[in-house]
Amino acid sequence: MHLTGNTIFITGGGSGIGRGLAEAFHKLGNKVIIAGRRKAALEEVSKANPGMAALELDITDPNSIAATAETLIRDYPDLNVLINNAGIMPFDDPAEEIDDRVATAIINTNLLGPIRMTSALIAHLKSKPRAAVIHNTSVVAYLPLAANAVYSATKAALHSYTLTQRFALRETGVKVLEIAPPWVDTDLIYKSGDPRAMPLDAFIAETMAKLGTEADEIYVDAIAAIRDNPGVNEHALINAFNQSLIDNPIPVG
Ligand SMILES: NC(=O)c1ccc[n+]([C@@H]2O[C@H](COP(=O)([O-])OP(=O)(O)OC[C@H]3O[C@@H](n4cnc5c(N)ncnc54)[C@H](OP(=O)(O)O)[C@@H]3O)[C@@H](O)[C@H]2O)c1
């Protein structure tokens, strides 16, 4: 994608990967609008980056999405890039009864959120000669975590949705991209400093470099083999990886 000359809306831009992408695009001179539920986080990021705008949004609420889309189209008519980044990652256990409230929240946030947000802006984006929808999935779309089973399923589903949406929009000016991050050290669960997690700065640098190419799927080199794992023998790595997390748990923060 073109890294300059865009007006970019980033959900979950008040922290972590969303903030990192927002600041990187802002530094390149793009107009950036961030969104999320926590007003204080949005204010902190927009104050630290003069010219960046912020909107309060609850991605689980269709009314909030509709109001946000209306504001975006009215106040930022040049909007041409949507980055669906907001997400949550509560633990669960597919060997036990699920907590329906938690499972519903994960699906509403991570899967229905990006689907609804894109739907609310798609007519506007199609009116632009050069537009992009970028979905933030995860390495766990390809290598699911047993301790975050519903989360992993939403990310695999969002990967699938990305493939079909890319095909459906192939004759429009809207490119559909996927960023599939590895484990990045953010507050998604808690910042652990675990050496297995990629530092945020390094992740953003490699991701921005790859966004500047023609690639549709953006993932760091370190997880290329995991991206290639799906196939008839995928269980071997999935089982071995999940066992390794039982043997070497993430230290509790
Ligand atoms: N960190 C990783 O290892 C990793 C790996 C792969 C993929 N990802 C994905 O990267 C994305 C960003 O995560 P992160 O690691 O940067 O963690 P993070 O700092 O916790 O960011 C998540 C963001 O989502 C926003 N959000 C959550 N629920 C929302 C809602 N209902 N409405 C609007 N915004 C909401 C949060 O803002 P508010 O709380 O203010 O609403 C927050 O800014 C997520 O989709 C995550 O699944 C992360």
Automatic annotation (TrEMBL):
EC primary class: oxidoreductase
UniProt cross-references to InterPro entries, sorted A to Z: KR_dom, NAD(P)-bd_dom_sf, Sc_DH/Rdtase_CS, SDR_fam
GO MF annotations, alphabetized: oxidoreductase activity
Highest taxon, organism lineage: Bacteria
SUPFAM superfamilies the record matches: NAD(P)-binding Rossmann-fold domains
EC number(s) per entry: 1.-.-.-
Keywords: Oxidoreductase
Family (UniProt): Belongs to the short-chain dehydrogenases/reductases (SDR) family.
Protein name: Putative oxidoreductase
UniProt source species: Rhizomicrobium palustre
Lineage start: Bacteria, Pseudomonadati, Pseudomonadota, Alphaproteobacteria, Micropepsales
